[in-house]
């Protein structure tokens, strides 16, 4: 695909041209950290960031999403009937998503776009979105994307890869959707032959800066039961306080809970993010909870990401290596360490507890 | 505080060796700068993995709730006060505990330090009262007293309130501390300003419940926000529901909160959750002369009645 | 409650014995007047729909 050169002085102007055709989202600096927000008219994303505190998954998949509305007022003809909530699936674009986060949507898509079941809300929202990735020249020390199926210049899941080459941007159109956005923004100067080489150099440099890694090559061949029974879970889960930080910040966690809420004679059915860290996630109507202890819940999170997902889709782990959970965990539980423990686990050798 | 660790290891090893405890609950070195991970140690050899420095802000009383083993627990001032509260509230038996008291000089605020630098902070170490912060291409030596967690900077109970062993000589308590300046600032606001202040405070809340779960007081088998029959609070990102969670949780901590800062420290988006609890802590102090967790002999003000209890709010 | 912005007077506590009927009447009258003077409550009202 062709590479477009965008002079930095033309960046804001281009954004101005697409702001009527797309609802724009991008990283915005808050008091202490960046997060993805809807951009106001005339507002440019702040690309001077390493990564956002929260993942951009909420752009496609909001924490609270109304699915249906209903009326209980018997004077109305369609009372007690669930009606689709009015939704806005007009085009939107995320400016400055990191490649790892864009790749995360593809992992989530395997769940929401399965052969038997398709989630219309997620899919319509995802399909309406154009992803303009900001290649990561300066990854964090906690990034392990290159060993988690992604990378600082990874193009998977992106429509455009935007590379900051200091004096200008290079925009590599990856899909027709991306090409379309570039055209709408009036960014049409094709870069000279040196651009591809420059991008390649920056990519190599960025990849070399990734100082952290996980080993996941053995996970598939491990016995699920042996991993489940492994002795290290007590140690891994001890510190966990069972909050939802890791799952809510994770770009690849997708679980939700459905709730009805009445107000007078009308109501809504909505879905809210849920977390496997919460006891409420699995408690039965009888009061029995099959995942009754925090050990169960911590094990579930790691087993799902690093074993069940691997087995089910045969396409790597359910993690893109963004490192958010590592950075934000209040008690420093580190998925890199757990992944390595699982990957190297030998039930026969393991009379010991940990490393 | 680095010097404490040898003594902590020595005591832990001895207690395990002598069979006085089944496990020690303490900290091991974290994988992130300015982070240590709570851990347990069950054999004398493993005691060597214990650490102690200015990054042990997590309240270890939280890890004692309802445990039946004989436990040696490492406790700084606030941890010990929450252990006292746990004993008063029958969440742990005194005779099952060996409390290894750690006179504390304050924990550092990792968010404050990260926010001081544009580039990522990659390594943080300490030397006496200095904190050395390193990243790619920079290194700075800072004064620890400028980097304390907010609650530590106003703490007047650095020494453990209850202990069986001591990891170091007691430290001098901070004097002439204006503990409630921030609460008074809110108190002087107009009602609408107060409302907006808390709206703004909670605007980033994700309802991950890290504040609740990090809190040693929040041990209810089912929290009121998780009750389903009846369901007291909505589950969405509605601001009314979010606020209901925060202020009701604060009420549940009234007369029990030690201002240990665990809630604020745990919050992934940096909300000062203590803005709620501290008001109640102040009220308990001013109305009942009560500070939580100082003595296992005294009953808390909210479970006792005295004829001279203040009651001006009752008309 | 007042600390987080509920207006003074909107929330009231009273201790009335079942024998104190006149106190009950007085308190209810007083509370009604104070709350009416404050006007309608705009806080703690759930928005009709979540976006």
Question: What are the segments of chain C in which pLDDT stays under 50 over at least 5 consecutive residues?
Answer: none
The proportion of residues forming helix of chain A, as a percent range, comes to: 25-40%
Strand order of the largest sheet of chain A: 1-9-8-7-6-2-3
Number of strands of chain C: 0
Number of strands of chain A: 11
The major beta sheet of chain A can be summarized as: 7 strands, mixed
Question: Per the principal axes of the C-alpha atoms, what is the gross shape of chain C?
Answer: elongated
Structural classification of chain C? mainly alpha
Task: Provide a concise account of the structure shown.
By secondary structure, chain B is of the alpha/beta class. Chain B has helices spanning about 5-15, 75-90, 110-115, 150-155, 180-185, 190-200, 210-215, 240-250, 260-265, 275-290; strands at about 25-30, 35-40, 70-75, 95-100, 125, 130-135, 140-145, 165. Chain B is globular, with a radius of gyration of 20 Å.
Tell me about this structure.
Chain A has 355 residues and is α/β, with parallel strands linked by helices. Chain A folds into two domains: 3-54 and 88-209, no CATH class; 219-343, no CATH class. Helix content of chain A is 31%, strand content 19%. Chain A contains twelve helices and eleven strands. Chain A has helices at residues 11-18, 57-60, 99-112, 120-127, 176-184, 194-209, 224-228, 232-238, 245-249, 294-313, 324-328, 335-343, and strands at 3-7, 23-29, 34-38, 64-71, 83-84, 92-97, 129-134, 160-164, 168-173, 256-263, 266-273. The radius of gyration of chain A is 22 Å and the shape is globular. Chain B has two domains: 4-109 and 148-166 and 174-303, no CATH class; 110-147, no CATH class. Helices cover 30% and strands 13% of the residues of chain B. Chain B has ten helices and eight strands. In chain B, a hairpin with a 2-residue loop joins strand 5 (123-127) and strand 6. The longest helix of chain B has 15 residues, at 274-288. The radius of gyration of chain B is 20 Å and the shape is globular. Chain C has a domain at 13-38. Chain C is built from one helix and no strands. Chain C has one helix spanning 21-38. Chain A binds chain B through residues 30-33, 50, 53-54, 63-64, 140-142, 235, 238-239, 241-245, 248-249, 257, 259, 261, 270, 272, 275, 278-280, 326-328, 330-334, 336-337, and chain B through 30-32, 35-40, 58, 62-63, 111, 115, 120, 122, 204, 206-210, 212-214, 222, 226, 228, 234-238, 265-270.
